[in-house]
Amino acid sequence: MTAQLIDGKAFAAHLRTQLAQDVQRLVQEHKVTPCVSFVLLGDDPASHYYIQSKAKTCAEVGIISRDFKLPASTSREELLHLLTTLNNDPTVHGILVQLPLPAHLNEREVINAISPQKDVDGFHPFNAGKLATGEDAPIACTPLGSLMLIHHALGTNLEGKHAVVIGRSNIVGKPMAQLLIAQSCTVTLCHSRTRDIASIVAQGDIVVAAVGRPELVKASWIKEGACVIDVGINRVQLPDGSSRLVGDVAFEEVRQKAGWITPVPGGVGPMTIACLMRNTVAAAYEACGILLNR
Ligand code: NAD
């Protein structure tokens, strides 16, 4: 079997088009333009690149983005003061603090200081709790985008399917498992201490790999026809000195056995930013008292 490719790039483009229409409607009917604030500390080139591409996508969808680029030496008090100001500003619907933070700042404290209503990353424990208890809340963007791709491949009824999630981070693995439980899947969550991981992954009708280990998941781990979602983004050096991006799944061999597979790049990555836009637009609708179907 050769897997069908799940084109995250095309799906994300479609989602952005829909969101642009949602923004237009909000502007016309409520005179409100969604606005997200990006807070970035320090000079990390990768973080600057991420913020730049997020801001570009905002412009495409019609969302206002405001950048707060602060020195790495910014104190805890200065950062918390900025977050309080943004929390209290009714024209700001979303706040995103780009991670990782400089070492002197406590990531958990900073995330907790963002108003849960403006937590467009879906990282606040209040929102993680709402997801776990089945209430509507901003959902972490990467798992949300991954679920959309699974629905796109398998249809919206995932009842009874065995989903295996590899990775237990707060931002990908755990919320992914919660989302799949809410879809009535039977969910197994594997991590670095899981024993005989290959035999567990081989039970999955759906496999989501969010590990950060280049091409860890082999074809021998995969059930024939499974839907494989590769969240990993790993840069590997090639013998000629150049480098390329690979996922957590050994793509070329797994695609011979899976039913559906996401490529890296062009799979989950574009969905993450599109879902950030979605969470921002939903927050702006919510500020107007309207629930945008997440
Ligand atoms: P993390 O480092 O926080 O978590 C990795 C998880 O993998 C841990 O729970 C760990 O227990 C598990 N793990 C490590 N080694 C393992 C092994 N050998 N077998 C089984 N489990 C193992 O990482 P994260 O933030 O969840 O990100 C995971 C990957 O996804 C990274 O490659 C990251 O770059 C990528 N990522 C991509 C996007 C995107 O937009 N596509 C977004 C977030 C993260």
Primary descriptors:
single chain, 294 residues, alpha/beta, Rossmann fold, 2 domains, six-stranded parallel sheet, three-stranded parallel sheet, 10 helices, globular, binds nicotinamide-adenine-dinucleotide
Secondary structure layout:
Layout: E1 4-5, H1 8-30, E2 35-41, H2 45-61, E3 64-70, H3 76-88, E4 94-97, H4 107-112, H5 125-132, H6 141-154, E5 162-166, H7 173-182, E6 186-190, H8 197-201, E7 206-209, E8 227-230, E9 234-237, E10 243-246, H9 251-254, E11 260-261, H10 268-287
Helix pairs in contact: 1-10, 2-10, 6-7, 6-10
Bound molecules: nicotinamide-adenine-dinucleotide.
Nicotinamide-adenine-dinucleotide (NAD) is lined by residues 142, 166-169, 171-173, 190-192, 194, 197, 210-213, 216, 231-234, 268-269, 272.
Descriptive account of the structure:
The chain is of the alpha/beta class. Helices cover 41% and strands 16% of the residues. It has helices spanning 8-30, 45-61, 76-88, 107-112, 125-132, 141-154, 173-182, 197-201, 251-254, 268-287; strands at 4-5, 35-41, 64-70, 94-97, 162-166, 186-190, 206-209, 227-230, 234-237, 243-246, 260-261. α7 (173-182) links the parallel β5 (162-166) and β6. The relative contact order is 0.17. The mean pLDDT is 97. Nicotinamide-adenine-dinucleotide binds at residues 142, 166-169, 171-173, 190-192, 194, 197, 210-213, 216, 231-234, 268-269, 272.
